[in-house]
Amino acid sequence: MNCNKTRVLMSCALDCELSAREEEEFLKHLAECPECAAEFTEAKKTKMIIREKIVRVKAPQSLVESILRLGTHTNPQAEGSLLFDQL
Ligand SMILES: [Zn+2]
Fold this sequence. Notes:
The protein is mostly helical. 85% of the residues lie in helices and 0% in strands.
């Protein structure tokens, strides 16, 4: 198994959707490849953090804040004039 296939399987592995054979090959690659092993550890951590935030209902608030922050960075007037120039 190569790194690319391992990364595809990684998201499935997090949801425990690997077949026995896939899991065996996946774990075998992780044992041989420190890079993928580290990435899988990070992915598991991230998934746990997201789950925790959902349980504590903190995620929606931070999501709203980041969307609001994004909104202040875009400049509708600049985009409008660009569109006008193209016409
Ligand atoms: Zn790898």
